[in-house]
Write a structure and sequence with these properties.
Mean pLDDT: 87
Largest sheet: 6 strands, antiparallel
CATH architecture of one domain: Up-down Bundle
CATH superfamily of one domain: Outer membrane efflux proteins (OEP)
Number of helices: 11
Number of strands: 6
Radius of gyration: 39 Å
CATH class of one domain: Mainly Alpha
Shape: elongated
Structural class: alpha+beta
Order of helices and strands: HHHHHEEEEHHHHEEHH
Distance between the termini: 107 Å
Amino acid sequence: MWNSHRSGTLEWTMWMPRLITLNNLALGLTGLCLTACVQFQSSPLSADVSASAFANRSLADPALQAFLVEQKAGGSWTTDKLALAAAFFSGEVRVAQSMVAQTEAGITIASERPNPTLSFSPGYNSSTRGISPWIITPSLNVPIETAGKRARRLDQARAELESVQLLASAAAWTARTKVRDAMLKLYAGRENAALLKNEIALHDETLQKLEAQVKVGEAPAFEVTQARLSLNRAKLALHDADQQSDTAQAQLAAAIGIPSSALRAVDLDFSDFTQFPSTPGSAARRTALTHRSDLLAALADYKVAEASLRLEIAKQYPDVQLGPGYELDQTVNRWTLGLNIGLPILNQNRGAIRQAEAKRQTAAAVFESQQATVFGEIETALAAYHGAQAKAKTAAHLAEEATHSSDTTKHMVEAGELAPLELVRRRIEASASALSLLEARIQAQEALGQLEASLQLPLRSLR
């Protein structure tokens, strides 16, 4: 008994170093994998800190100024320059840009190869006598993808990235449209207020002259009532114009992504709203139908669907798993090579292929439908711009006639042919014509904005 026990002890002592070596190898491989792992980095988000940072935003931000220099956007704060500020600050644009970064990580995921797996299942035979009772069976499983599946995944991920990048560009254009709309409303409110202040002064002068005439019996009292009503209407319209300006300024700040107070520190340039570019030709319209960011994004979605179909077709072919192994069975060394192949007997991935084909057809239909919608938007915007330009031209002619009538009346009053009150009335008519002209021009600018939004192209760039 003692000799048998001693023999077993000697065998244990002989095989123990080999067992320790294998254990160390497994532990070493595990440690190497763990040291290569990415560590979590905390990034707390606080509502208070975020609100404080937003409240401190301004158009003088050094990072914004550096961005504007990079974009070669100098000079006054025009619509285009404010649109660049919106691309820098806007939350919607930032979300779109973060989606780009998120999708870029998808390319890394698609390019990764599947990891091998290491199995280690030591055993012990307690009935063994005279030899080592340990059974050591480490094995490695190496998956091998076939039929170019990794390349297909990469094609799909790259198409997804292209789509998201184009949607980010579309988000930047949407931000520009919001900035322009708010700028136009602010311009309209300020210009309207200036004209109304002049008209109020004229109505007040008319009222004073009529009250003087009523006192001496030269005018009926109802004319005073009518003049007072006109004065009150003009005052209420001025309140509306001021409210429009305040609301538009808040909307402009929101479109840019800054507090409203930040706009008070800068002088805004509204000169773009005094110009009316000519309508684009067929080449520009065709460019919009083939190069609009959202249309190209829909086309990229079609590429995603097509790459997905290619991947599903590749999945018909089974992957291979190589399983080299080693077994130390009571002093006997055995080497094995396992080969696992999935058998496409019960299905050949036909269901997934059929679904991918349907998704590709849907993506094609979405693109064609969206392109047709854009075509309709362009045609509608062109018609509206033509009509608004014609109305603005007529309003300009009528305003010119009213101004000429006012000038003629002035000369007649100076010659003693008419009473001074008639001159004030002609000036009120000219002021009303000026307000109508402003309204017509604002409508034309609104139509121009819709046309530029449908083309995703500033018409000034077509000169």
